[in-house]
Amino acid sequence: HSTDPLLRVETLRSSYGRIEALHGVSLSVASGEIVALVGGNGAGKTTLLRTISGVQPMTGGSLSFQGRDISRASPHARVAAGIAQVPEGRQIFAPLAIEDNLRLGAYLRKDAEIASDLERVYDLFPVLKERRRNPAGGLSGGQQQMLAIGRALMSRPKLLLLDEPSMGLAPVLVDQVFEIIQRLNREDGVTVFLVEQNAFAALSIATRGYVIETGEIAMEGKGEALLADERVREAYLGV
Ligand code: ATP
């Protein structure tokens, strides 16, 4: 249905053994948006992303993508449907060449446009092209984050899920990575859902945002409205 959001998360629950980490999370991401989910350590951000991509089981609620229920779809079926995750800590394959890491992102594809998508990734991240034959392990933290984003783009996602893209990066690199995320959204039409502890960086580029606290959505609003909110400023912006 054309009025369905691209992603709908409804009263989602997820547990580690007997410990429930997500207590019924509901949110949505419309096509074309950049949506940020901010929250502190252990709030459940990573668990939520991993549940959406299907690598972490859900124990209740439902997930739909483009109006279709994907609650029981395998992780690779979700990738094939257009959901790609950039995992926390990048998880690149250090001994493999940069270009081989990128090609792994296209492993489910059989179409003829893989080569032009690789050129697009190199256009976004020239440093990856310069060093494409070198082992990925030799890249700096910021370059590895770029590689992880590039690898996710090689699956041609409609929805890009990013887990703490700013983690471990110097401020200037955080700005660079967030600029690229905006370009992908604007120029390539990729819808973005990102989770961050760096609330300032994330809400600054977000159309809309959510605040998660101990496995529950505590607030929701436009990016700039949350940035201006007294409670958000005290709890997450240190002001
Ligand atoms: P961070 O920013 O530190 O990654 P987060 O918001 O991503 O935090 P999660 O990693 O999703 O939070 O953790 C949510 C809750 O689930 C926490 O209470 C955490 O201790 C718990 N948890 C996470 N991973 C596991 C696991 N593998 N086994 C048991 N409990 C876990």
UniProtKB/TrEMBL annotation:
Keyword Transport: yes
BP-aspect Gene Ontology terms: L-amino acid transport
Entries under PANTHER family matching the protein: HIGH-AFFINITY BRANCHED-CHAIN AMINO ACID TRANSPORT ATP-BINDING PROTEIN LIVF
Residue stretches making up the ABC transporter domain: 7-239
InterPro entries: AAA+_ATPase (IPR003593), ABC_branched_ATPase_LivF/BraG (IPR030660), ABC_transporter-like_ATP-bd (IPR003439), ABC_transporter-like_CS (IPR017871), BCAA_Transport_ATP-bd_LivF (IPR052156), P-loop_NTPase (IPR027417)
Family indicated by similarity: Belongs to the ABC transporter superfamily.
Keyword tags: Amino-acid transport, ATP-binding, Nucleotide-binding, Transport
UniProt key word Glycoprotein: no
Pfam families in the cross-refs: ABC_tran (PF00005)
CDD domains to which the protein is assigned, alphabetical: ABC_TM1139_LivF_branched
Lineage: Bacteria, Pseudomonadati, Pseudomonadota, Alphaproteobacteria, Hyphomicrobiales
Protein name in UniProt: Amino acid/amide ABC transporter ATP-binding protein 2, HAAT family
Cited SMART domains: AAA
An example molecular function term from Gene Ontology annotations: ATP binding
Organism listed in the record: Stappia indica
